[in-house]
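Question thread 4412

I'm putting together a teaching handout and wanted feedback from people who do this every day. The idea is simple: show students a protein as raw sequence, then show them the C-alpha cells that encode its fold, then repeat with a second protein so they can compare. Below is the first pair exactly as I plan to print it.
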Amino acid sequence: MKVEIEESKLQTAYANACDGVKDFMESLFGKKVFEAAKPTLDDYKTIRTYEDACKALGEPIFEDPNNLPNHIIALMKLETISRALWGRNFQPKPDGEGSKVYWYPWFALWTKKEVEDMNPEQRGALLSAIAHAGASAGFGSLIAYHRSSSANAYIGFRLCQETEEKAKYFGQQFIELWAEYLKFNFTVGNRLK
C-alpha cells in the first residue's frame, strides 16, 4: 500500500506536534522535509502559533503570575507575534511625514447574509452607527470630535505589518487571539492551515 501526503500538510502536522512526535516524524521522513516548517524570522508563514513566534524570537513563553485579564494576555501575545512576523531585518518606525504605509488586520463582524437577514430597524441602527462621525469607539479605536480638543487613536501601531499580505495572514492565522483581544461577542471563522 502506498500513502501520499502533501508536504505542506506534513509540515503543518510537524509544526503542531510535541517534541516526541517531531522526533518520530523526523526519523520517518528525514529532517530535511521539516526544515521549512521550523519557525524562523526569515519566513513569516512559519510563524503559525504564539509558541512559534517565541521560538523564532528566542523569547520565553509568557506565563501569567498576576492573573491578568484574558484580553491583556491576548494583546501581549499578538505584540510578540507581530514582532516575529516583521522578520529579522524589518524595523518599523512611526513616520511623522506620513510617507510610509503600514497595514492592520481588519475584520468583518457580520457576513453579507447576516446583514441581509437583519430587520430594517437592526440594519438602520448598524448603518447609522457606521456613518456617525461624531464619536466612534471600539476595536482598538477611539475618536472624539466636537469637544474642546480632538484626539484620535485609530489602531495600535505595534500590531501593524509592512505589507497587506502579512496583515491578512496575521488576522486570519491568529483569529482566536484577535477575538480574545477585541473581546466582542462574535463567532470566529476559518483559520489558515
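The second pair follows. I'd like the answer to focus on this one:
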Amino acid sequence: MRLSAVDNLKVVLVAWVIGGHALLGYAAIGGWPYDEVNEVTFHPGVETVLAALIGPSGLFFMGTFYFMAGIFTPGSIVRKGRQRFVADRLVRLGVPWVVSAVVVWPTFVWIAYRGAGRNVSWWQAFTQRDPLLDSGSLWFVGVLLIFSVALAFAPPMKERAITGRTAFGTTMVVAGTTFLTRLVFPARSGQIGDLHLWWWPQCLGMFLLGAVGGLRLAQRVPDDLYRTSRNVVIATIAVLPVAAALLGALDLAANAEPFLGGWRWQAAALALVEGMLVVAGSLWLVGLAQRRLTGQGPFAEGLARSAYVAFVVQGPVLLSLATAMRPFDLPAEVKAPVVGAGAVAVSFAIGWVVTSRRGASARSS
C-alpha cells in the first residue's frame, strides 16, 4: 500500500539527509567521512549558525525513517508471509549493505584519500579505517534488516491508536535507554559493521512505535497529537541555541565530548532532547505531510520511486563530487551547498533511471 503523503515525505527526508551529509563533510565537528580529508572547513560562526538552524534535525530524522518503516512492516509480513518477507528483506536491504561495506564504500573512500594526496592502498582503506566494514550511509539499511527480521519472528503486534500518553511514555523510554546505552557505546563511536549501537534506542523505539500505530497512523495523525508534537518540536528547537549559549557550548568541535556519553548531566540532557525530538518530530513530520504534502502526479511518483536508490548511492556521489571540487580555491560556504545540491540531483537522477528501467522490464516480462 502506498500513501502519497508518506512517499512525498520520504523524498524530502532523503534529500535533506544527502544535503546534511554534504555540510558535515566541511564541518569541524565532522560526522561524514569527507571530513577526514577536507581541504576547507566552515568559519566557526557559520558552523554555529548552521548547527542552530539545521543541527536539531540530525537528532531525529533517522528515527523518522525507522518510524515510517515500522508503520508498513507488519502489513508487509502479513501479505508476504514470514519466509517471503525475510527473503525479500535480505535481497532489498542485505545485498546493498554487503556490496557497500565490502566494495563500494572502501573504494570511494580510497578515491577521496588519493584525491587528498594520501598515499594509501585500497586494502588500507578497507581494513584500517574505524570501524571495520563501514558501509557509509547504508548502516541504516543493515540495522533496518536486523529490526525487520526480528519483528517477522516476534509475536504479531496488535495495531492500536497512538495517544499523547503513548508518545510521552515512548519519549521517556527512548531517552532513558539512550543514556544507558551511551555509557557503553558513546555517541559517534564505531562498532564492527558500523552498527551505530549508540543510536539503537531511538531507531528501535521509533520502529516499534510505527509498527504499533500501523496504517491508521500513516493515514492520519490525530489533530491534537499533531498540534502537541509540533509545539514540542518548535519549543525544543527554539530553546537549544539559548541553552548552548548559556552553557558556553557554542564551539561544537571543542565542547561536544561531554554530551556524547558517560555519567554526565550533559549526556543525560542530550538523550532527553533526542527522545523529545524524535518522538514529537516524527509524529509532527508525518502529520505535516498528511496535511501539506499530498500532491500526486507522474513527477512526484517518480521521485518517490527513486528515493531508496538515491539514498543507497548518495555516499559515492557525495565523495566523488567533493573530490572533484577539491582543486577549486573556494570556501566551504560555497563548496558545501554546491556539493549538496549536486548530490541530491545526481542521486535522484540515478534512482529515476534505475527504477524506470526496472519498471519497464517488469511490464515487458
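Top answer:
Good format. For the second protein you could add a caption like this: Residues 4-359 form one domain. The mean pLDDT is 91.
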